[in-house]
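How it folds
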Amino acid sequence: MSEKKLPVSGEKIAAIAERFGTPFHLYDEKAIRANVREFLQAFAWAPAFKEYFAVKALPNPYILQILAEEGVGADCSSMAELYLSEAVGLKNEDICFTSNDTPMQEYEKAKALGAIINFDDISHIDGVDQALGLPSFVSMRYNPGPLRQGGNTIIGYPEEAKYGMTDAQILQAVADCQKRGVSRFGLHTMIVSNELNIDYLIETAEMMFQLAARVKEALGVSVEVINLGGGIGIPYQPEQQRVDLPRLGREIEQAYRRILVPAGLGQVKLAMESGRMITGPYGYLVAKAIHYKDTYKQYIGLDACMADLMRPALYGAYHHITVVGKEDRPCDHVYDVTGSLCENNDKFAINRSLPKIDMGDLLVIHDTGAHGHAMGFNYNGKLRSQELLLTESGQVKQIRRAETLADYFATLDYPGLPQRGQ
């Protein structure tokens, strides 16, 4: 069972809110570092294991810098993410650029940084070769399609996903790149998301190890790196259990020795690109109750909205809520907890049992450290909130200010609208 605790006392949450105002996302540096170290230790047996943090999950350079200090690289899929990674000093094979309907200028930037280019589609190879020339090391993204049963609501069934190449295309792509002078190869997949079933994660590793063995048998090519993707889930609901990382590491090691070693691939490097599992549980959206409505249901309106956390509206996702100062009171009221967006799905919780909430109460929405602030938007003229870092020393600093109306209007050249500095 996953106990949902505040990162600091309720009194300190209130003091932070008084100092910075609400809403805000708060990230716990000490917990993030401890979690990363546990994850890396679980795969310490693997030759040169590398975690590439999925930048899309929390694209803030202060967080990326913390992770880089722990030896973590960056998994990028856009120009902005490449620039963020470069800004914190990552380069060369500390960056993996996974393409997906990718403009050529993004490939150009990735190649200039020396990043590992991970091709999503076989058709991209010729285009990159003609425009830029292929690097000496490339990776191929695999989609097993119906060979792999199952899926989930976030990433879907493999055969219906837009990502990756078929088994035959992987073999063709490796052979083609080899003819074009590529000498080093990697394999990659990403077919699960927010997965708590450890067996599914282990099966993914077995699938990729078997693919590497087929590549060697068919083409005589020994892949250098196998990237197992991300997808390790986190326990959003209190009754869920977190993934047992040491067990995951042990089980994948057994598959590695059972499949790769006999195939003559006992020195293959392993990589993963976890995002949610790295930072997700250590982020918190703090908002203030500003409106109570009693009609056919009871509603609590916050000063945050779906622009600050889209997951409940997009996936129907559960995020636990703590009412600061009322943690020990009975949850004897049932509310929909909402934002002010002009969309009825702008709800953080539906029919949620909580303590009686009074106006001015602070609510902490848990597990927003990945795909929280990052998925923000400006529909309805809503402005994205600030991000704060709870440092290892216990101090709090702002690592992204809240947006202003001037930011919202910055791309408009029209008289009378607020400008920067106003």
